[in-house]
Write a structure and sequence with these properties.
Elements lengths: L1 E6 L6 E6 L2 E7 L1 H4 L9 H10 L9 E4 L3 H15 L4 H15 L2 H11 L10 E4 L2 H10 L6 E7 L6 E9 L2 E9 L4 H11 L8 H7 L8 H8 E3 L5 E3 L15 H6 L13 H29 L3 E5 L6 H10 L4 E4 L5 H16 L28 H11 L4 E2 L4 H11 L4 E4 L13 E5 L6 H9 L9 E5 L3 H4 L11 E4 L18 H5 L15 E7 L5 H14 L3 E6 L11 H10 L4 E4 L2 E4 L9 H7 L4
Parallel strand pairs: 1-4, 4-5, 6-11, 11-12, 14-20, 16-18
Antiparallel strand pairs: 1-2, 2-3, 6-7, 7-8, 9-10, 13-21, 14-15, 15-19, 16-19, 17-18, 20-21
């Protein structure tokens, strides 16, 4: 039985195909449309999933949508009536979108399926709807390795819920408690994202990366005046400080008065205020997550925790939650945001709606999960890539299976920056070795080079390490795998270099970030932390072999891994997109499956200068 899961119309729309309870394919629309965080109907992702699953006319049994539009529209109406006559402008702006798209989901799905060739000789499948946080909880529990677990979902808002606690047991997920709109940890964090000059729903991870440069001097003020936080983690926001109910901005004039003036403008210099605000809201987020988690342990009695929702992508809070020891272990959906709702909706229909049994991917207490490493997107066969390169006259060298890891490892060890586009594309916001840019984590200059010359992004942002799963304890204070880059952990103390003592007074973040802090300077953040991806031989044997070859060559089983894209663009999907990004940046080498391309051997790229001006940073 084949079920298509869908999420759409808010941000990070996606599609997922589940076949007899197993995830066959999943992808975000942005990877095909090339519009970052694309919220439109995921027609291209649907087309890919159906093709990957071999679904012909009559072969799709059901469609599951990740939330309930009518209930969400009811929240919009009730919210406006609650604040009227204020809030008329955002209401009038939202109403046409609802009347055009968001209330007619079933019709849009039927149109999309017909465009994909379904419904000609057989009836179209029925469309079912899950609630938003049910989809999140299902996406967290069903692919997890646990037979039983508590579930915790945290995001901006679904229909009404902004956070839930539940229990997963066998093939059932049951939600027990919730926090409702307008009180939301996700919206609180997004308000500070907006105020510090980053884009809401895409810049939250920048705020998280900025936090270690500041001091949490506003923490107590936030908890005293903006958030009424209870012992059990429940909270209420002081809505006088926020503008999302009645205006078009996340924060109000009162917020500006309390935090020293208007919001920072995008691309303006980052001041000490923004650094301290980032540190403060991260500290508040950590505290709220810990309190809710403790309460979840108390009310569920479960030893394991599964998490989803956009806040679950806050890997700093995740790492602190793990180290707090509230639960024996936790598992986080790698596509924790709205994209993962497509997975959850399909699995919820299969298990809860149809009462189908759940097959554990591991042994019920740990081990492998059901996400298949998140390698659920398109792959491109070598023959196709060879034809593409030959047709365009792009010089390359073909590597055999034994040569592939050794040669790429040699290039990385020589401080080259290498783009990897091979195997199936990752699902979720993280590149995990198949659509990645890699480099030497030992190099003190690599972080600056990759930020400014390759990624064209803010210099303060750290890079993540990919480390052999069997070596993770040699480099980091972490005693378990972190396959999806969703845990931050400290670099081992014996690897650290001492602070010079003047860091707090540095105003130039470039000077700060370029100071080595460990014997792995390119992946060690200013607080001695790292956002870790552990690489397992079974899940991604080719990427594991590359890091293993690098270890044999250098003695270090860890490299830099960042997503294969530049600022403002989605991660690349196709070899053509990878080549275009390669030529427009200062990458040294590109790997397309079995083919190695050297930058110096390629023909001149005509639009390189114009493109670099577009992405230039102040």
């Amino acid at each position: 039985m084949k079920i298509l899961g869908l999420s759409a119309y808010y941000h990070d729309s996606a599609a997922c195909l589940v076949d007899d309870g197993a995830i066959v394919a999943a992808a975000q629309e942005e990877r095909f449309s090339r519009q970052k965080h694309d919220a439109g109907f995921p027609l291209n992702a649907v087309r890919y999933c159906l093709a990957e699953g071999g679904v012909a006319d009559g072969g799709l049994d059901a469609v599951a949508f990740y939330d309930k539009p009518v209930l969400k529209f009811h929240r919009l109406l009730e919210t406006y009536l609650g604040v009227a006559p204020r809030g008329l402008r955002p209401y009038l702006m939202a109403l046409p979108l609802w009347l055009k798209d968001k209330l007619w989901v079933s019709a849009h799905i039927e149109d999309a399926l017909r465009e994909c060739g379904l419904g000609r000789a057989a009836p179209l499948p029925k469309v079912c709807y899950a609630e938003h946080h049910e989809s999140h909880a299902a996406s967290a529990f069903y692919p997890s390795p646990f037979a039983r677990a508590a579930t915790l979902t945290l995001d901006g808002v679904g229909e009404w819920a902004t956070a839930t606690i539940g229990v997963g047991d066998g093939n059932r997920v049951r939600l027990m408690e919730e926090i409702t709109f307008p009180h939301s940890l996700g919206l609180l964090y997004s308000a500070f994202t907006y105020f510090t000059g980053f884009r809401v729903n895409s810049g939250e991870y920048k705020l998280m990366g900025l936090a270690p440069y500041g001091e949490p001097i506003y923490r107590d003020l936030i908890l005293d005046q903006l958030v009424d936080l209870k012992t059990d983690g429940s909270f209420r926001l002081n809505l006088r400080y926020f503008g999302y109910l009645t205006g078009l901005t996340m924060t109000s004039r009162r917020f500006e008065a309390r935090f020293g003036g208007p919001p920072r403008q995008p691309e303006a210099p980052i001041t000490r205020r923004e650094r301290d605000l980032a540190a403060s809201i991260q500290a508040v987020t950590d505290e709220i997550v810990l309190r809710i988690a403790r309460h979840a342990r108390e009310v569920t009695g479960e030893r394991h925790l599964c998490m989803a929702g956009g806040v679950a992508l806050n890997c700093v809070a995740n790492g602190k939650l793990l180290r707090a020891g509230i639960f024996d272990d936790l598992w986080i959906q790698p596509a924790a945001g709205d994209a993962g709702g497509a997975v959850g909706a399909a699995l919820a229909l299969w298990h809860c709606g149809l009462d189908r049994p759940r097959r554990l991917p591991g042994n019920g207490g740990g081990g492998r999960d059901g996400m298949r490493g998140a390698y659920l997107g398109p792959a491109f066969p070598p023959a196709m890539i060879r034809d593409y390169l030959d047709a365009r006259g792009y010089p390359y060298r073909e590597l055999d299976a034994a040569e592939w890891p050794r040669e790429i490892a040699r290039l990385i060890a020589a401080e080259n920056v290498v783009g990897l586009c091979h195997g199936r594309m990752e699902f979720g916001p993280r590149a995990l070795g198949n659509r990645s840019i890699v480099g030497d984590a030992r190099s003190p200059k690599m972080q600056s080079i990759m930020n400014l010359k390759i990624k064209h992004r803010e210099s303060f942002r750290p890079f993540a390490p990919s480390v052999l799963a069997e070596r993770i304890g040699d480099y980091f204070d972490l005693d378990r795998p972190s396959p999806y880059m969703l845990l931050v952990a400290p670099v081992r103390e014996e690897r650290r270099l001492p602070f010079r003592g003047d860091e707090a007074g540095l105003e130039d973040l470039r000077e700060w970030v370029n100071r080595p802090r460990s014997d792995l300077p390119a992946i060690t953040h200013v607080d001695y932390s790292a956002r870790i991806q552990s690489v397992d031989r079974e899940t991604n044997p080719r990427y594991h072999a590359l890091i293993r070859a690098f270890e044999e060559l250098t003695g270090w089983g860890v490299i830099i891994n960042t997503s294969f894209n530049v600022r403002g663009e989605p991660i690349v999907c196709t070899p053509e997109e990878a080549y275009r990004c390669f030529m427009r940046t200062e990458m040294d080498y590109l790997v397309l499956e079995d083919f190695l391309l050297a930058k110096r051997a390629q023909p001149a790229w005509e639009d390189q200068e114009r493109w670099q001006e577009t992405f230039a940073l102040d």
